[in-house]
Amino acid sequence: MSPQAEHIKNYLQRNWFKLSIAALLIFVALKKDLSFKLNLNTPVQLEQSPEELPMEKAVKSERYTDNAIIDATASQTEHFDLTAAARSPKKANALERLQHTGQKQIRQYIERFDKVAKSEERKFGIPAAVTLASALLHSQAGTAPWSAEGRNNHFLLPCTDDWKGAEKSYDGYCLRQYENAWTSFRDHSFFITTGPYSDLKTLDTDDIRGWAAALEDKGFSEEPDFAAQLLEVIRVYGL
Q1: Taking all residues of the chain, what is their mean pLDDT, rounded to a whole number?
Q2: Contacts for 79-84 with beta carbons within 8 Å, 24 or more apart?
Q3: Contact indicator for 156, 175 with CB cutoff of 8 Å
Q4: Backbone angles phi, psi at 211, to 5 degrees
């Protein structure tokens, strides 16, 4: 073997590990370059436009939109339920509205119809205090439009199937009309002592609380806590 060949042999024996690592690195580098070239030859897939999206994705998007609308509505409803009492002024009842009509108007009304209420008590057994208190509340001491001259409904008596007289609608609610105030008081006496109210006649004239409670139980007035309002009017104005 020639000296040159012997030298190469000895070099390879001493550096075989390094040479193997170098060969491996060269192989890896050549493989990556080949992969890169192959990728360059592959057509690039263009991004789909929104119009070309699959129908499933579009439907899913609509479903989310519907849910968002429903959730927003539910949130508004819940907010309204929680804060309605704070944002909306409380509707005044008949007693509270009556107190704003003025003491002079109330006293004049009492003086005008006190004898009428007592006359109805003697004839029908209805406590005069209950009749007068009910008239004050329902007519607002004669200032309500349905109790004005020419209408004269002092008790908010509604139109019924057996009513043959004049009538007028207020906000879609039909009320009876009378020629004068006395006719209204007399019709009220008939109204709460006949038909579904006939058993009230068994109550004693002095039983003010019993009459007030019975009228509320029978649903005579749509006013909340009607009995309590009646009794308070009787107490405040000494009826």
Answers
A1: 76
A2: none
A3: yes
A4: -65, -45
